[in-house]
Amino acid sequence: MPAAKPEPGRDPQMAERTQKLNVVFALSSLGLLLILSLMIWADYDREWKRHQLEFNKLEIQLTAKQIEEILGKVGAARKKALDDQLARGEQEIAARRDEVRKAQAEIDELHNEWYAADQDFRFTKAEIDVKRYEYEEAAHNRWSSASRRQASLESLEKKWAELRLRVEAVLARQEAARARLRELEKTKLDAEAKQKEILGEYTRLQDRLRKIEPGFVSYVRNLPVLDLANPSLRINQIMPANLYDDVVFTPTPKVDRCTTCHLGIDKKGYEDAPQPFTTHPNFDLYLRGAHPAEKVGCTACHQGRGRATSFRNAAHTPSDRKQEQDWGKYTHSEEYQALHYWDLPMLARGHTESQCAKCHLGVVEVPGASKLNTGIFLMQKYGCYGCHKIKGWENLRKTGPDLSKVASKTDAEWMFRWVKEPRAFRPTRMPQVWDVRTQDQDTAERKARSNTEANAVVAYLMEKSARTSYPEPPKGELEAGRKSFESIGCMACHRIGEDGRGVEGLPVASFRAHGPNLDGTGSKLNAGWLYAWLRSPRSYWHETRMPNLRLSEKEAADLTAYLMSLKNEAFAAREHPPLDAKIRDEILLQEYLVVQYAVVEAGRQLDALDDRQRTLMLGERVIARQGCFGCHNIAGFEKASPVGTELTEEGSKLVERLDFGYLEHEIPHTLPAWLKQKFLEPRIFDRDKPAKRPEELLRMPKYFLSEEEADAIVTAVLSLTKEQMALGAQKLLSADEKHVELGRQLVRDYNCQGCHVIGARGGAIRGIVESQLVSDQKLDPVDARQRAEAVSPPVLYNEVAKIGEGARVHTPWLHEFLKDPSNRVRPWLEVRMPSFDLPEDELNTITRYFAAQDKVSYPYEPLPTIDPAAVARGRALFENWQCVSCHVVAGKLPPQDDPAMMAPDLALVPRRLRAAWLSQWLADPGRIQPGTRMPAAFPTNPEENAYPEILGGDQSKQIEAMRAYLLSLGGGERASGPTGR
Predict the structure, then answer these.
(1) Fewest CB atoms less than 10 Å from the CB: which of 419, 425, 578, 918?
(2) CATH number of this structure's domain 868-972
(3) For 173-219, what is each residue's pLDDT tens digit?
């Protein structure tokens, strides 16, 4: 049978192709469905959601624990008694059901009656306002309807008064009905009130527990796609005002989503929880004090990428190598791969304080930022600014001693041994330049080169040094010198050996490290020079911080004898290899002259120099290369530029710009880790690089920092950033605060806190005296502390009482005293206030600092009027209290010779003390100066007043009378103005 012919226009293979096409469409649809599902899941499966679910479990555990603690405090027996009382109340209500129902019905009926009466009362008041307006208009225009409108107004006012009485009567009946109902329910109501009082927090926590416990509703809310509506798991974000991120040179409003994962950061109770749920350290300062998260956010202090919601994208920074390896799980690798395309990675743990400097500008110390403050202090003490330019630090004095006259104080033998290895002589901040590379780098050849360079440097310094001859000092008594050293105040700035008395915090940053350690002085100095230096330090170096203690010839001779007895024989016996001329010439030719001249010409230049000139040239070139002039005044280098990298924006340096050498797998690939390694081992990045030429090697000297010191300096360097905060976020200083900060800088420069307590720190002398009294005189520690306070320099600012020297003394007196402290307030004390020879501008800065710190008038204050009658009564109190048994009056000493029991000359009171402070001191001396031997003459209980017959025992009047008498002493001369000195 012949095959059927296809219909015209129909494709016989269309059905087959359609079936294939359907398969393709089906597979494509399934593929798209799978991709869509994967996309939805990828969007849903976020690590922050897992963190929130985990934190929810922690919240439930903490809440349940708090509930248990509350129940534990209440006690099971007490809770059962409350439950029983509630049950009895329910039973009583059930027994009186009819009475309760009747009382409630009466209350409801009275409420309806009150509502109707109240509505009539309010509507009538509205009508009265209308009628009053109509009457006033008619009366003003003298209309004939005025009397009729008046009568209508009076009628409404009468009705309004009646309605008011009706409303009040209904309210009274309603309250009586409620009182009857309360009486019927009294047992239950009393139980509920007690339960609310005792278990209010328990109830609140129970309600919270019900809300946070997961259930079916929360499960459905958080399902994929459905979580578009109102999920319980959501991204949290903070948008602080006036803060921006620099994104491709465009200020973009800062958005911080850190609390999406760090859910316990602003909640107490999670201090011991694992990260990322831990409560923020120092919670009250950073989250409830001056830095609320809703105003400053998180990344303003911690840096990082605030908009990110994943660990890596937030730009977390590991603190050490182990953490870097542990974090590899976040990047599915052996070690953590940081986010490379964000310029401000999160700060490593321990360095967050570095960011305080962005807002706290112009302050000497940032409150609460101890590591940052210590780091900046160490940078200044070590003289980092001498080699590295730091904006704002350009005018600081060189940190090392003046070497322009060094030949007058010591010899070349000591200098060579010192520059080769300073710490072999004594503890010092002087870094070591030579022989500090790793063991494989410091070969015998390199050490021979080091000896040659050191010899050349010493030769140059001695050649260029001015020479002054000093005669032999008078013969002194060694033991007398030792006692003077320990008593007059030298130990406030200097230590000998490892003496740690009175040292606070890091020894190298303590007040007693302000001056050099004096161990081995006798092996270093010329005795004649030392004697002259002790008599007048500024005669040798006008920029020295060493004050003049106004020593007599005998005191200076005794001190010289004692200090010259401090020898370091082992150091003096160290080998001093001679300069190797061959090595010297090779260094000069290959590293210096060939760089400057053609090879042949370089040879000619070298040949033209004699032996001495070659040595001096090498010394000069080495000093220039190493930058010794950054810390020392050296002749010939007065205008030399710093040799190190500028650090002004070092905290913003990108990791990609750092050379990790062959240490990439030994330390984290981060800026803080690189900096710390640099500070600990400055030349380690040259390790395993034998092809480097000598002039290409790293040259930063080694300071032998401890881990703690290196960490502090890293924090300080990280604070040197190009990032700028908006003015609204900065802590701007008031005029008084600026004066305080200027004064604080001078107080630090001159180490006033070595002797005086100012705020929470200082007074190293007290600690030394106290330890001496305990060890030498075997005093009880409490008595020793009291005695040390009595014979030590005064407290200049009491942090607890918030009162200090500015509120205590007149500014003119303080100015004159600082200018010439020889007129001592307590001349019988061994410790003495030195003369600093301060210029007038610094005198004014310090006196204004104390006044501004205490917020008192500057420079003069109005004086109170002195009532002669009050003076007479004050004199009676003065005599009754026998003040002269301790106080000096007009130079007359009290009848005892114990310095700890002697008090200042009261004849100085009018010129010296402010009247307002005097009143506070008399009222409660222990509050202003804790531990003072000044008795509290005015007891807390006025009934215990010792002299009730004077001014009727009124203590405030007695204080004013006593003050009036004290202000009349010494001829009544008082500092009241330009002529009142």
Answers:
(1) 578
(2) 1.10.760.10
(3) 888 888 877 776 677 666 666 666 566 667 777 888 888 888 888 88
